[in-house]
Design brief:
The structure holds 2 protein chains of 2 kinds. Chain A starts with a helix and ends with a helix. By secondary structure, chain A is mostly helical. In chain A, helix 10 runs antiparallel to helix 11 and helix 11 packs antiparallel against helix 12. Chain A is about 75% helix and about 5% strand. Chain A is elongated. In chain A, a hairpin with a 4-residue loop joins strand 1 and strand 2. Chain B is mainly α. Chain B is about 70% helix and about 10% strand. Chain B is elongated, with a radius of gyration of 18 Å. Chain B starts with a helix and ends with a helix. Classes of the chains: A mainly alpha, B mainly alpha. At the A-B interface, helix 2 and helix 4 of A face helix 2 and helix 3 of B.
C-alpha cells in the first residue's frame, strides 16, 4: 500500500536535480502522511485511500515542475541570440575557407590521382564533419556557460548583459537591413522586455562614428580566413599553372613555410586583436576613442610585421621558385626584377594605406575628445 | 480552448497572484505544510498542496521564510515562519494590496453604474 506513495515520491523527485531530491522527498512524505491521516480520521488506511490522496495531489510531472527553480534550457533565452550570431559568423568563415581549400586542391591535382568527383565528395565530407564539430564545440561552450555556477554568475554579470545587448543589436541590425525587402521585423520589439528607461538612450553617433556592421562582419570573415589559411594551409599559398608536359596543375609555394610561421605567430596576435575590435564595434555600434586607438595600434603592428617579413628573403621559397622558373625556361633575370619591383610597389601601397588609416583614426579620435 | 476554459484560466491567474500574500500573512507563527493548507482552507483560500509546498521552498530561497525540521511524534515536520525580510515584504505587499482594492473597487463600481444605465 505504501508502495504507491513511494512510487509517487519517486515519480516527482526523479524529475528534480539530485541535490534537491532527498530533502524534497522527506518533506513531501511528511506532508502526504499528514494529509492521509487527516482523511482517515483514526481508521487504518486502505490502498484506495492512498490512491485517492495521490490523485488529489496531482500529476507528479506538474508537481515536479513547480519545484523547479527555473525553466531548464540547454542554452537559455539570455544567451541564444549570441549563440546564433557566433554560429553564423564562424560557419560562414569556415565554409569559405574549406571551399577555397577545395578549389586549391582540385587545381593542384591530387597526388593520389583522385577524380574530380571524389574530391567533391571528399569536400562535402569535410564540410559535414567541420560543421558537426563546429556546432558541437560552440554548443558545448554555451551549455557550460549556461549550467556551471560560474556560468550562471556570468550570465547575470554586466559583461554578459553587454554581450546579450550586442546580440540583440546585431539581430535588429540584420532585421533592419532585411526589413525593406521582406517588410517585417515583428520580433524586434517584443524582445525588449529588459528594464528600459528613456534616459539611457545613447546619443545618435556622428556619421563618421557610425559602425558599418556589414563591414565589420566581412572583416571578421576575412580575419577568420587569414587565420585558417596562414596557420593550416600556408603551403597552399603560391603560384598555380598548368604543366602541359605532364598534363597537371603545378603549384609553386610562395613561402618558405618554416620561416613564415614565426611571422604568422605575430600576425595571429594582430588578427585576433583586430577581430576583437570588430566584435566590440558591432556590439557598441560606434567608434569611440579607445576603438580608434586599438585600430591605430593594429595598423601599425601589422605594418611593422609586414616590413620585417618583406626584408627577410628567407621567408620566400626562393630556391623552389628559381628551380621552377629554370625548368619552364622563363627568363630569370627579368622576372626577378619584376618581382622585386612588385614587392616595392606593394610595400609603398601598404605603407601609404596604413598611414592614411592611422591619420584618419587619429584625426577622428582627437576630434571626439575635443567636441 | 472553449470560452469557458478561457474564463477559468483568467480566474486562476487572478487567484495565483494572491497566493504569495495569502501564504505570507499566515506565517507569523511557524506552520508545517499540511497545517498551513488547513489554515488557508479555513480562511477560504483553496490551494493545491502540489502548488503550496514548492511555493514555500521558493519563498524560503528568496529569504522571505525560514524553516527548520522539528522531530516530533508521529513524524518529523518542516516548519516555516516569516523571516525579517519576509515581514517587511508582507507589509509592502499589504500596502500595495489595499491600494489595488481601492482602485479596483472604484473602477468596478463605475462599471456597474455604466452597466445599469
Amino acid at each position: 500500500m505504501m508502495t504507491w506513495m513511494d512510487r509517487y515520491l519517486y515519480a516527482v523527485t526523479r524529475r528534480l536535480p539530485k541535490s534537491m531530491r532527498e530533502d524534497i522527498e522527506r518533506e513531501l512524505r511528511s506532508n502526504l502522511m499528514d494529509a492521509l491521516e487527516e482523511r482517515l480520521e483514526g481508521r487504518d488506511a486502505t490502498e484506495q485511500d492512498v490512491l485517492d490522496l495521490l490523485n488529489e495531489f496531482g500529476d507528479p510531472e506538474k508537481v515536479a515542475s513547480e519545484y523547479m527553480p527555473e525553466k531548464r534550457y540547454l542554452i537559455g533565452p539570455e544567451l541564444i541570440d549570441l549563440y546564433w550570431m557566433i554560429l553564423k559568423i564562424v560557419g560562414i568563415a569556415v565554409g569559405i575557407g574549406l571551399t577555397i581549400a577545395l578549389v586549391v586542391s582540385a587545381l593542384q591535382g591530387d597526388p593520389t590521382q583522385k577524380g574530380l568527383i571524389e574530391i567533391i565528395i571528399g569536400y562535402f565530407g569535410t564540410l559535414w564533419s567541420a560543421a558537426i564539430s563546429l556546432v558541437g564545440t560552440i554548443t558545448i561552450i554555451f551549455a557550460v556557460i549556461q549550467y556551471t555556477t560560474a556560468g550562471q554568475e556570468f550570465s547575470h554579470s554586466k559583461a554578459a548583459e553587454e554581450l546579450r545587448q550586442a546580440g540583440r543589436e546585431i539581430e535588429e541590425a540584420f532585421k533592419e537591413t532585411e526589413a525593406p525587402r521582406t517588410g517585417k521585423s515583428k520580433h524586434a520589439k517584443e524582445k525588449q522586455t529588459k528594464t528600459w528607461s528613456a534616459d539611457q538612450l545613447p546619443v545618435v553617433p556622428a556619421s563618421t562614428d557610425r559602425v558599418s556592421i556589414s563591414d565589420s562582419v566581412v572583416s571578421l570573415v576575412f580575419i577568420g580566413l587569414a587565420l585558417l589559411v596562414f596557420n593550416v594551409y600556408p603551403d597552399k599559398i603560391g603560384a598555380y599553372f598548368f604543366d602541359d608536359a605532364v598534363a597537371k596543375w603545378v603549384a609553386i609555394p610562395l613561402f618558405n613555410v618554416a620561416i613564415l610561421s614565426a611571422y604568422v605567430m605575430f600576425y595571429n596576435f594582430v588578427w585576433v586583436l583586430e577581430a576583437l575590435l570588430h566584435v566590440r564595434l558591432i556590439q557598441k555600434g560606434r567608434w569611440g576613442f579607445a576603438e580608434r586607438m586599438v585600430k591605430i595600434l593594429v595598423s601599425l603592428l601589422g605594418l611593422g610585421i609586414f616590413i620585417a617579413l618583406i626584408q627577410n628573403p628567407a621567408v620566400f621559397n626562393t630556391e623552389g621558385i628559381k628551380t621552377a622558373l629554370i625548368q619552364y625556361g622563363i627568363d630569370l633575370s627579368s622576372l626577378a626584377k619584376l618581382g622585386i619591383l612588385n614587392l616595392k610597389i606593394l610595400m609603398v601601397i601598404i605603407i601609404l594605406g596604413t598611414a592614411v588609416e592611422v591619420i584618419k583614426q587619429a584625426y577622428y579620435a582627437v576630434k571626439s575628445k575635443v567636441v | 480552448m472553449t470560452q469557458n476554459d478561457a474564463i477559468q484560466n483568467l480566474m486562476q491567474e487572478l487567484r495565483r497572484g494572491t497566493l504569495v500574500i495569502g501564504v505570507l500573512s499566515q506565517l507569523h507563527e511557524p506552520e508545517y505544510g499540511y497545517s498551513l493548507v488547513q489554515k488557508l482552507n479555513d480562511s477560504g483560500m483553496t490551494i493545491d498542496q502540489g502548488t503550496l509546498y514548492p511555493l514555500l521552498r521558493r519563498l524560503e530561497k528568496q529569504s522571505l521564510l525560514e524553516s527548520n525540521w522539528e522531530v516530533e511524534d508521529p513524524r518529523p515536520r518542516r516548519y516555516y515562519q516569516l523571516s525579517v525580510t519576509g515581514r517587511e515584504a508582507l507589509e509592502a505587499l499589504k500596502t500595495e494590496w489595499n491600494e489595488l482594492v481601492k482602485t479596483m473597487n472604484l473602477m468596478l463600481s463605475l462599471d456597474s453604474e455604466e452597466a445599469s444605465k
